[in-house]
Write a structure and sequence with these properties.
The chain is α/β, with parallel strands linked by helices. Helix 14 packs antiparallel against helix 15 and helix 17 packs antiparallel against helix 18.
Amino acid sequence: MCVNEFSRSAPSDSGTNPTPHLFFFPHQIKVVLSTSFSPSTHVSVICGGGSGHEPFATGYVGPGLLSAAVAGPTFASPPASAVRAAIHAVTDPQQGCLVLVMNYTGDRLQFGAAVEGARAAGLPVEVVTMGDDVALLPPGGGGGGGGEGKGGAAAGDPAYAKARAGARGIGGNMMVLKIAGAAAALGKPLAEVAAAARAAAAAVSSMGVATCPCAMPGADRPDRLGLGMMELGMGLHGEPGAAVVPVAGGAGAAVEAVVAALLDRGPVAAAVRAARAAGRPPPRLACLVNSLGGSAVLEVGAVTAAVLAELTGRRGLPLERLYSGVFASSLDMRGFSVSLLLLEGGGGGGGGGGGDFLPFLDYPVDVAAPWPASPAVVGAGKAAVPLPSALVGALSPRSRGPPPDSPSVAAFTAALAAAAAAIKAAAPRLDALDARAGDGDCGATLAAGADALEAALAAAAIDLATPQAAAQSIGAALAGMGGTSGGLYSLFLAGAAGALPAGWEATAAGAWAGALAAGAAAISEHAGASAGDRTMLDALLPAAAAAAAAATSGAPGPAVAAAAAAAAEAGAAATSAMAGGAGRAAYVPAEAVRGEPDPGAIGVATWLRGVAGELGVRAA
């Protein structure tokens, strides 16, 4: 509800008139788009993520910045269906689209699934993943800040390569959005717009500090820090940071600690060290001071003054632009972040071959949250824009009529129902496991998907004409799950569908084993995870291997399913001893999750056991 009301009530920057260039889709698809944007003449630029970070991203839609923004639930990534709706709405096949993704697992998965769908429909789409947070990077290194979706690891630096999933996306990426939007508005082709965004993402370093996490709507504020303490590097969703230290010395001391970290690790630190070692002047910089939502204007002003004094006075760095305000908040988190951008980041004017970002930062915009900052939301009274025709059918489940009269189809639908029931029964345990590393919603998200699957089965909305159509139809039924789990299963089903044959009777147990493997491969490609990273793949991969081996030996379908379930359970149990190499567990200290299995892996084992149990009963 908060997201819907926000997207429909924005005054203009004068505070008196609606913003006439902003419109929205129906509330089920939370997309804000600029109707003044011309897809036929310019590359479109899209970004988004979970709500609660306003004015990012909906406040940045308009000429010179974003063509569209996609909003998910509070602190949860939007579903791939909403992202794909945005891409189709503002993208011309001749110009193309740049999709900017904050480096969080759910965002990468949901946006990745949407991009794959848009590409399959013939649209040229480039993706740039942005991870500017240096808080959890190893000290003393010079890794990049994202740009290619691998966390920005410095070439040849194993420590940074290992930290690939830890470079979270925070406030500094607003400058990446600004640069990409200006490049597109200047008429540059897609390759050059993407190159400028990648260069900017690799040239920005950020770090935040907070005295307490935010309070989720309707919930009490967490009090894990205690009075008189602050956390260096707290994430935008309240994730644990690098260190908890006493609050002492006011804004100046907090700023000194943050700037010290920015000049110790990441791309800006590496550039400053290299210049000094070579006897060159230090690199030119732009700085963005971002309120996390709960800091008073007076406090932000004090922090900004301290940043200016620290950078130009004490550190002697040439600061050419200083932006201050609320750019990417965390509801009402009491704190701030500081971001530094290398103005000669290597892609400013020439598509990756060197240049200056300053003209892009100075390019005029007309958005609801004016650059550098002001409060803004979308105007009321707008008519809903119809969904793109190419997506109406896929996003509107409908009755498919009676299923084919086949024992295979009957067993399949019964197995789906058993899987949904097993997940719903396990939801409380999955939530408890997930709370060790984050917001504790894994079980609730999977249970919502199970409810949607049960509803689709009851309404005969699953297309059971072929196994491939069934997998695709299940994906459509689960389109509203959102979050990391929704993205993972969207990718899994998309990958699995491509490996399934056209007929039910031709679908032997080996084909289902191949579908498991294909779905796991799709997750691995887009999530950047592999075996041993403490993710659902640690259950899914051994399940696929065990199923293939059982099928090859001639085992019947129920025995193949039982072998897959047993292997998944063993793989899930083994995650208790794994450190997080990808996904949410990679964003938090290892001790926070040590000794407990990964909830995503347990979820896989749970529904596979439900399937195996149902098939075993039917075979008895």
